[in-house]
Amino acid sequence: MRKLPMDSWFWLPKLGSGFGEIKDVGVLYDSKLGFKITSEADLPKALAVLSRVLNDQVQLVSLCFVCGEPLVDDMGYVMCEGCAGSDDAYALYTRKFASLIDQL
Prior knowledge:
This protein has about 100 residues and is of the alpha+beta class. Helices cover about 35% and strands about 15% of the residues.
C-alpha cells in the first residue's frame, strides 16, 4: 500500500504513458515540486488511475499541520499525537499559522 499526502507535494517514479492519465483526473504537477492531489481532483478516479499506474494500492493521508508527519487516524484532526500532546501544542500551532500568514 502506497500512502500519498493530500494537499501536499510529493514525488512519484517515472510514469511513462500514465503521466497524462494522472493529470487528466486533476492531479497537479510541477516539474520542481512533483505531484499534488487536492479536493479539486476527481478523487475516486485519481486513486484508481494512480493504483493502476503504480501497480500498488494508493491511500490518501492527511499530514500534521505542525510537523508534516502523516496522521494515523484521519478523523478531522489537524495535529498528530506528538504535536497535540506536547505541553506547548497551542504555541506550536500558532507559530506555524503565523509563519504561513507571513508568507502571504
